[in-house]
Prior knowledge:
The structure is a homodimer. Chain A is an alpha+beta fold. Helices cover 35% and strands 20% of the residues of chain A.
Amino acid sequence: MTDPRLADLLASVPDLRLKTDAGDLEHYGRDWTRRWNPAPLAIALPGTVEEVQGIVRWANRHKVAIVPSGGRTGLSGGAVAANGELVLSLERMNKVLDFNRVDRTLTVQAGMPLEAVHNAATEHGLVYPVDFAARGSCSIGGNIATNAGGIRVIRYGNTREWIAGLTVVTGSGEVLQLNRALVKNSSGYDFRQLMIGSEGTLGIVVEAILRLTDPPPPTNVMLLALPSFEVLMEVFNEFRGRLRLEAFEFFTDRALRHVLAHGAQKPLEDEYPFYVVTEFASNDEATEAAAMAAFEHCMEQGWVADGVISQSEAQAQQIWRLREGITEAVARYKPYKNDVSVRISAMPAFLQETQALLGEAYPHFEVVWFGHIGDGNLHINVLKPDDSSDADFVTQCEHVTRLLAQALVKHGGSISAEHGIGLVKKPYLASTRSEAEIALMRGVKQVFDPNGILNPGKLFDA
Amino acid sequence: MTDPRLADLLASVPDLRLKTDAGDLEHYGRDWTRRWNPAPLAIALPGTVEEVQGIVRWANRHKVAIVPSGGRTGLSGGAVAANGELVLSLERMNKVLDFNRVDRTLTVQAGMPLEAVHNAATEHGLVYPVDFAARGSCSIGGNIATNAGGIRVIRYGNTREWIAGLTVVTGSGEVLQLNRALVKNSSGYDFRQLMIGSEGTLGIVVEAILRLTDPPPPTNVMLLALPSFEVLMEVFNEFRGRLRLEAFEFFTDRALRHVLAHGAQKPLEDEYPFYVVTEFASNDEATEAAAMAAFEHCMEQGWVADGVISQSEAQAQQIWRLREGITEAVARYKPYKNDVSVRISAMPAFLQETQALLGEAYPHFEVVWFGHIGDGNLHINVLKPDDSSDADFVTQCEHVTRLLAQALVKHGGSISAEHGIGLVKKPYLASTRSEAEIALMRGVKQVFDPNGILNPGKLFDA
């Protein structure tokens, strides 16, 4: 703590909790990408909005960069601090501030883990419906910063739809109360929406008012085995046409093999190239019959080769584990991750082109596919062979990402569906956003963060 | 057409349709506010995005202000051209460009009337669910510019939720394709959302990709007579708890009297101080029974004094006319309109305070109330007495608006729920948005419109 800047920080924000141990610097300086070496100046753990504001003012005086930090489960390097930044961790600001039954809102501090948000909503008989596998570790503030999606988007949309209000500290240290839970508010630019997905480059989300909704009806979970990729959209359309879908997720045989090797239970006798996990409302005889009709029609058409439907909550969880366990099961292979999207109707053509592209580009690499087919979102994970160095592997993968980016331009897609741009996707942002848009983003950043102290180098270079 | 600037405009955009007749200048220079004297330079009616771009570039060269213009049904002066501006009317750009069944999207030009959008969606067995009384005249581009709300917000949200993509020409003449119908897209700042509700001050919306949805189930419409304002939230909670509400609207006895005088049919024997029109899904015996149970419970509690339920589509329309006919019925009194909102839970306290305030402030004026109780949105129309001059009347009303704005600050509300700020609400913007937010708005405007040619003086002064 001999750095005079830190001494001034503690003088300016007297009760601030600050960490500078090597272990802490490493822990708080990186996210799940593991590609950059953490090297923050220090870790600040404010407990109040005023402390956050004090830190931002200090950072402006000293021109120290701040990396806002939630659960650091990000996959794009958005929360990496590799250049002497101050990490501003929201982890102590993790409480429910208010529940309002009439407004159906839950007001929380930004550091609250998503799972804790779920639990708090459930206590009141309601749900916060955004959900994904990192729920136990990720924070709601990070969800907002990346407009997190997940496994329920097909039914409930992205994080963006569930934010009734935000409290934000801008790059110049102003505290903004954005939208304040109003259902209708046509009073100028919606900076709440601008903040959502801005990856901590415009402001630090410190509190959020979340919209809640009714719990879904009882559901069933089905696993479907598919003989080929080509029938995936047919199966999706059949199920979507007959049922109220809560989720519709796909993965490949390679993905399944990794999850089974990681301890999951084998679901079907034989192996198939592609699988779907779908969850749907099934609360009476009519909806159960509709599910069976959809399944049987797909079997008759040859679109589905086998399947199983959950008979209990435990079995539903076993089926879900096959999909949700993938990321963890392949983590030890340091996968290079692509998280791309196209509009739903462009999916078949894009899938075909991408499959051919990756087959040619990665003959020696193992590629694990999964994704949210009903949202047009594919996750393509390339696993690092043990005999390849980290650097060589990333170089080879980035060559292919450039080809993938070209395919995205052609099909009107996005280089990041839900992970965000961060550092990992920054070189490819122009495949999704025009040069004019990127120039406007730089201009807007300048307005909210004139000294460029908030998460600099993420999303785009200044 | 002797103005050399117009000669240069026609030289730059050769096939541009331009109007300069006095009648056209008056017609296109004003909106429904009728408070400002129209005085535009000319009316341009482009037919293509390229022509719009050409006009904007010309405007930048000559520093001529542009007023983007849709159906001019606005109630805040957002489309008024009273200072030698060029009105850029989108009325010729009014076509459907694409329908996509898989994406469930309708791509339209911005000048398309809302009702034509409804009809185009219906042709494909789907609906565009944003709806309000001006549907026949207003344009979808204007809806987007003000984030229009209306009578179905309680079920479907505002315009903001239904925009999958926008094509926009910025103040510097760049054409942006924003979001391009992607369901998931986490690739930097969401300028689509920033444009929605920006009242033509950042860019001109030229095309929009609209999300469509399934038609609602069969519905019934009920008229309820209430003995007092105080029970309104009780009735709302009772109906919301038991039914899938499509709409829940209220109005006062004075409002009803004007609609009856304007030709509507008297719905009930006696008169009551307050009325509710509610529409709800009613497609089987269970939902019909739930509606009757809600009604009977409210009668038993004394919250509802009388009521009628629609027995036919024709009767449903008659009941709706009582609510939807109000604006037209009071139009001849040149009403001073307030369009305010608070969060739903703040409604009872705000209603009480506002009622007292207006009772004191306007002992000699007739005040007509109606609104969207389930969205926290109140419309307060003050009718001009015949013996009062327009100027005197507005001055007196603005005095009260200042008091109302203070009440909004106290209750955390908005000076504009759905009409937008425009010219009418500009003096009161600071009751809803902080000085820091307004300064940031000015900064963002500067980024998108560096020469300040787009709708200057609307929303805020430069």
